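From the shared-data thread, chain only:
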Amino acid sequence: MYVPRCNLELPDELVARLGSQAEKANLSATAYLRDLLERDANGSMAALELAPPLRGIVEQTSDAVFVKDLEGRYRYVNPAAAALVNRKPDEVLGNRDPDFFDAESAERIVQRDAEVLATRKPTTYEEVLTTLDGTKRAYLITKFPYRTPEGRIDGIAAISSEITDRHRNEDAFRELAQGLSATTGSSFFSSIATYLAKALEVDFVLIGELVAPNQDMIRTVTLVAKGQVIDNMQYQLSGTPCENVVGRSLCSYVRGVKHLFPNDRELQEFGIEGYVGIPLFDLEGRALGLIAAMNGKPLNNLATAESLLRIVAKRVEAELIRDRADQAIKQMGHTLELILNSAGDGIFGVDPSGKTTLVNPAAARMLGYPPESLMGLPATQILRRPPSESGKEAIHPVEQVLRSGASLSVLEDYFLTKDGAVLPVEYTVTPIREGTTVSGAVVTFKDISERKKAQSAIARQQAELLKAKELDELKSNFVNSVTHELRTPLTSIMGYAEFLEDEVGGKLAPAHHEFVRQIQKGSRRLEYLLNDLLDFARLEAGTFSLFCREADFNQLVDETVASFKPEAMENHLELEASVPETPLVVRMDPQRMTQVLANFIHNAAKFTPAGGRIRVVVRQEGDRLRCEVQDSGIGIAPEDLPKLFQRFTQLKDGRKKGVGTGLGLSISKTIVEAHGGSIGVTSQPNAGSAFWFTLPHEP
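Structure, as tokens:
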């Protein structure tokens, strides 16, 4: 039976020397042992002949110390070495590595031992070993040949420090580096969250951004739950641990977070115990969102988690900012596309060589091309112009702008459509500049066919107006001339009629007196017509004027009504006036206002049948007087009312009643408005009419 050799002794001189050095250097137990063994000049393993001072160090150290013989059996193990394989020291002694490690790990251990024995030199390396229960641990191992006091190699001695946490951190950073190098965009966020979850050994990782406009909610950009990327969600910040992170600083809860935030539904649903989150900011320091790592168990290695989150946060911030910029650019591009597609003007974009890089639907439609057929074609081939009258080919405006770098605007020119039709256009060519370099141009043009038609129509109207003005001048001149030419013989006729009436040439028979009255009546009618024509001529010539003075309007009404009494009696009409008892003194031109009132009474008499009634009513209305001539005549149709005050207008019924110029009411309107008054009429067919006007006391 093999008996392990555990009674190892260390020479007193070496113990004293090395113990003093260890104390002076304040080395840890592991460092002390490594230093002791590596500096043993003879390379012997006498250092492991443990004297009491060293035995205490080796037995208490957390690092594994062991010795194996040449056959691989363990001759010595300290408690830390035995604990690595879940055994007590006496359960390890006499056994080999395959008794504690899986086949692959045991084979690597044997190979390393063989290398040390072959080189006869100490060696230090890192190794990941798996025990038979499946536990993996990483170690920093120093091995060296074990020599007897006589110098003969008698086995392998080693000191091993567990570095599993360091390996885990290194793996985490390695995973992180892979995640950070992932492609940008949505895949980046899911990748980095997955790597973080793996590196931190947590169940959940979310990357979220604030939701505008109130910024009181978080929308997850990515959410990893137990290794799977799940659907994004949106949640209120209030009452969650995230509220203590966003816009603030890194915040962590190693355990019990679900109890601290009982109203956080997600924490309760997922059973979260540990939480760590870090805020995200934009370039101007405004809150963007956060990264949060959560676990169903208390967090391990919080320092590592915080370090990783700080590193990742900067990269995620940059990606979120870039993502937002991309979204803004896409939205801007979409908006620009909508504008281009909706624009009524044609828009062309060309590169420095003049080839088409952009064309909107309106441009293609106006020129008669399918939009897709124009891309890449020279603009000079698309925006063709008719040959000049001189026959000389002028430089194309696009080429001109690309050469000069100066904008060009043309109010009227012509392009040829695909089928050769001439299209009148207005266009502007603007250079596109990058610094001092012209990198292209934009052509905007509009179809001015309708404008050209409108211009032609306006020109025709102006010509017609000019012709009408000339005709009006001829008419005015003719009316003025005729009026003056007729007034002289009319004056003679009226004078001789008075001689006859007065029997200056001899006594007249009764029948002859009737003849004279008819002559006088016709002469007065002709005088009215001539006066209207003369007033019209004055209005046209701009020589019409008023001679205003203060006068009693009541007296004017009474005198005018009295002058029409004989005509009213002759036509069997009742004519009366109703005026205020006190005088109405108004500043006016009495002759012109008499003319207006006479016109109203004359028209009323003409359109009121025998037995009818005409009434002139005057009353005060505020700071104005109102005069109204009411009749019980045939009335006026509603559609004819707007025509009444137009020049040379006679209604159908008026033409039947006799000769007239159609100027009376038009002239009356001019006279009243010249006084600062207003004029109008109310009427219904077969219900009579009421012509009225108002005058201010001071025109």
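The chain has 20 helices and 24 strands.
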